[in-house]
Specification:
The complex is a heterodimer of chains A (371) and B (90).
Chain A: E1 10-14, H1 41-54, E2 58-62, H2 72-81, E3 85-90, H3 97-106, E4 110-115, H4 120-127, H5 132-146, E5 150-156, H6 164-173, E6 178-183, H7 188-192, H8 194-197, H9 201-217, E7 223-227, E8 247-250, E9 256-257, H10 278-284, H11 286-290, H12 307-310, H13 315-322, H14 338-348
Chain B: E1 15-19, E2 24-29, E3 32-36, H1 38-45, H2 53-63, H3 68-84
Antiparallel strand pairs in B: 1-2, 2-3
The chains are: A alpha/beta (371), B alpha+beta (90).
């Protein structure tokens, strides 16, 4: 592809892979970047400046736990000065009152807080961090009292699927303007741990319907963004709104990725923001051009009337399940392998309820569960 | 609820932004970029929490030499839709 693609609207900056929580559904890669390999403050600032110049509007500061970076408020301050809308995606653990005040003064626009459960025993068990739930409640209060918009984000799996609608209620109670209910996306650690996380089809469908039913009830109070369970879906998600179309990810060590799972696809060449400009990478890096547009598609995607709707679904899911990144995402009913999704889900969901493997940063290479 | 006395404003975390690179105006909000047409830009510029709905409508009607009733309907439709998305406070 030689012509210049329209610029991205969003940049996800994965500032660090360090994280004090141990969520079993972590979708970060199984091999995490080490603290010593993280980019410096100056490198991140340069990237944010370049992002703003090339037309990025939203900057998502994520990780790992971004509050693990000592320079977080300095980074937010710079991003705000170059005109980016700054969104902090945090577990809240590690966010002190002093840091919060500094982030507000630096011009933070929005805070997204993860919750793991609807009460302390459940949430602290799933997150693997005692006192985490209480800490999150405290932070939600700081955010709403300050007047900043709060998003509450919850990932749904076998250990909390029955509580999915109550997560929405909790978000409203915490004063969130927006709530994201995301059925687990099986990538990275979560993929390894899938057999311990997968709910039954019946559980998924009931949870999904119950959350949808909250939409009308909470209209004007909270905006519900709902991420469907891929393994129980009929059509695939429009992953990343299309490869290399709206968003770019920068890993802690500076690799620029079309999505944070893209490294599982063999043969892709990723360029680093350490030694190239962001706009060069967006325009010309082989990884971004590999699945941009529709020219790479094969049957049935190539002739599909939905190809501009969902862009063939997710390349990483096609790779992980079919061994072919160009294949139609098997979560689509038009895939000849769609039956696999239901079979895997049925097999995985038959396991014990509380058997998942917590993820620990220090032990990031230990996996359990049957992929 | 919206009334003539409502003083609409953009809440914290919602910004009217000129996206010069793409030659358009947008509202930036949590996880949302909403394109804003030139008429909506004029409306939203007046939504600063100090003006009532009545004042906003009469200002626009006078400035664009338009029928106040029609302007009022447009303003209400826009603000109701944004309020539902938590992008305007009434």
């Amino acid at each position: 592809m030689s012509e210049t693609p329209p610029p991205p609207e969003g940049l996800l900056a994965e500032l660090t892979h360090r994280c004090p929580l141990a969520c079993p559904y972590c979708s970060n890669p199984v091999a995490l970047d080490k603290a010593a390999d993280e980019m410096t403050t100056e490198q991140w600032k340069r990237i944010f400046s370049e992002a703003a110049e090339m037309g990025v509007l939203h900057l998502h500061l994520s990780g790992g736990e971004p509050c693990s970076r000592r320079d977080l408020s300095e980074l937010v301050d710079h991003a705000a000065k170059v005109g980016l809308y700054t969104n902090l995606i945090t577990s809240g653990v590690g966010l002190t009152r002093d840091l919060f005040d500094k982030l507000v003064a630096a011009g933070l626009d929005h805070l997204q807080l993860s919750i793991q459960g609807v009460d302390a025993p459940q949430a602290d068990f799933i997150g693997g961090y005692k006192g985490g739930y209480a800490k999150k409640r405290e932070i939600a209060e700081w955010v709403t009292r300050e007047g900043l918009p709060l998003t509450v984000n919850a990932v749904i799996h076998r250990g909390n699927v029955e509580d999915a609608p109550r997560m929405v209620d909790l978000a409203v109670e915490l004063g969130a303007r927006r709530v994201e209910i995301a059925h687990t996306q099986y990538y990275g650690w979560a993929f390894k741990n899938r057999a311990n996380l997968m709910p039954t089809r019946d559980q998924s469908e009931r949870a999904f319907a119950a959350v949808e039913a909250r939409r009308e009830h909470y209209k004007g109070t909270v905006v519900i963004d709902h991420v469907a369970p891929d393994y129980h879906a009929k059509f695939p998600k429009a992953c990343m709104s299309g490869w290399g179309r709206q968003t770019m990810n920068v890993s802690p060590s500076g690799k620029v990725l079309p999505c944070h799972s893209a490294e599982i696809i063999p043969g892709l060449e990723f360029w680093s923001a350490r030694d190239r400009s962001l706009s060069d990478i967006w325009r010309a890096s082989p990884a971004f051009n590999a699945f941009r547009g529709v020219d790479w598609m094969q049957a049935p995607c190539v002739a599909c009337e939905r190809k501009a709707v969902d862009f063939g679904g997710c390349r990483c899911q096609a790779m992980a399940l079919l061994g072919d990144a160009r294949a139609c995402d098997p979560s689509c009913i038009k895939s000849p392998h769609h039956h696999l999704m239901g079979e895997i889900a049925a097999r995985d969901s038959a396991g014990p309820v509380e058997g998942f493997a917590p993820r620990r940063y220090a032990r990031g290479d230990i996996v359990s569960g049957d992929a | 609820m919206m009334s003539d006395a409502s003083r609409p404003r953009l809440p914290r975390g919602v910004r009217l932004h000129e996206d010069k690179l793409r030659d358009r105006w947008v509202l930036l909000a949590p996880e949302r970029v909403v394109k804003v047409n030139p008429i909506a830009v004029e409306i939203l510029r007046l939504c600063d929490g100090s003006r009532s709905l009545t004042e906003i409508v009469s200002d626009l009607a006078a400035r664009f030499n338009a029928d106040a009733e029609r302007v009022g309907a447009d303003v209400r439709t826009l603000l109701a839709s944004l309020a539902e998305k938590r992008m305007v406070e009434l």
